[in-house]
Specification:
Layout lengths: L1 E4 L10 E4 L9 E11 L1 H8 L15 E9 L11 E4 L12 H4 L14 E5 L3 E3 L6 H4 L2 H15 L7 E5 L3 H13 L2 E6 L2 H9 L4 E4 L6 H8 L5 E6 L3 H10 E9 L11 H5 L3 E4 L5 H14 L5 E6 L3 H10 L5 E5 L1
Parallel strand pairs: 8-9, 8-11, 9-10, 11-12, 12-13, 14-15
Antiparallel strand pairs: 1-2, 3-4, 3-6, 3-15, 4-5, 5-7
């Protein structure tokens, strides 16, 4: 079977499409014929700099896959041949707080990922695909969707009528916008593109802010919230945007820290003075994934896919992620 693999620290164009021996599932494992794999910023970062992550090479990238089960190993009772499933980002995180053991089971990082025609996964490391979704749509769920769900529900514990600030229009932010709509949460979205902000308003965003024309966007957020601030921020920028996010958050609000897209340093004083909860987040666990899928099914939610790429052109998908012009998700199809 064919797989893309990272062989060096030379970036996207050094990715190699190779033939690998197909493996049989062992005890508690399943073999999945991959039909689609979505791209996350974390996948791009891993490809660009595997050395800083101390990854053994070669390594198959990507955490998110959707496909059908084509074989099962011994003692597998929860999954059957023919089931449509998605991968869990962490292969060994059933529930509860994250642990070092869970971290060591991250696909496309600590262990081989899913950018291959067939993959061996733990039977407890897959979940059923909502029936109304295609493989391409389902492949967007394991990382970006679950991260957004965890930020709003698991971390910030938002409820109807609350207000959330979403930075940008990448996969996590757009899923957070969709989930906010499901739950009656008011969303403020920032972007440098008026066209993207128009799309966000069409999707139900309460307010939008262009951070190029309003560089002090935290002041705009305060104006929109009667100088109180938002209840929560889905913070995908990192240190470069965190000071503004803190200023835009109400006293005793929550910031779900997800991304590291911008450089800079963090000053903790304002966090203390405003009694803000700053929670680092890394996706979510299997039980949370299943809960999210129930909500997706109930509301017939459809993920937003910006563009799809054929498997042979996987490098193009990572270049598109690097260009950062997408709205929603980028997906590789097999």
């Amino acid at each position: 079977m064919r797989a893309w693999q990272i062989n060096s620290n030379e970036g996207i164009d050094a990715l190699e499409l190779v033939e690998r021996k197909a493996c049989k599932p062992g005890m508690g494992e399943v073999c999945v014929r991959v039909r689609a794999s979505s791209v996350n910023y974390r996948d791009l970062a891993t490809i660009r700099d595997p050395a800083s992550r101390n990854l053994p090479l070669p390594r198959i990238p990507n955490s998110d896959a959707a496909g059908e089960v084509i074989a099962i190993g011994e003692d597998v009772k929860t999954v059957a041949v023919g089931d449509r499933v998605t991968s869990c980002f962490f292969q060994d995180w059933e529930a509860g707080p994250c642990t070092p053991r869970a971290m060591d089971s991250a696909l496309g990082g600590s262990i081989d990922g899913v950018l291959a025609e067939e993959v061996i996964l733990s039977a407890r490391g897959v979940v059923s695909i909502p029936g109304h979704l295609t493989y391409e749509e389902a492949a967007t769920l394991p990382c970006a969707a679950l991260t957004a769900w965890n930020a709003l529900i698991g971390t910030a514990n938002l409820k109807s009528g609350d207000t959330v600030l979403l930075l940008g229009t990448g996969g996590v932010s757009i899923f957070a916008l969709q989930f906010a709509q499901l739950m009656g949460i008011r969303a403020i979205v920032t972007s440098s593109s008026d066209n993207k902000l128009t799309r966000c308003r069409e999707m139900g965003a309460w307010q939008t802010i262009n951070y190029h024309t309003s560089p002090d966007w935290e002041l705009e957020v305060l104006k929109l919230t009667d100088n109180i601030g938002v209840d929560a921020v889905v913070e995908v920028g990192g240190a470069g945007t965190l000071d503004r996010s803190i200023a835009a958050t109400r006293v005793a609000g929550t910031i779900a820290l997800i991304g590291v897209l911008t450089g800079g340093q963090i000053n903790p004083v304002a966090i203390m003075r405003k009694s803000i909860r700053l929670q680092g987040m890394y996706v979510g666990h299997r039980q949370m994934f299943e809960s999210m899928n129930r909500a997706i099914t109930m509301h017939d939610l459809k993920p937003v896919i910006h563009e799809t790429f054929p498997f042979k052109s996987a490098r193009d998908a990572f270049h598109a992620m690097e260009a950062a012009g997408h709205f929603g998700k980028l997906v590789i199809t097999l």
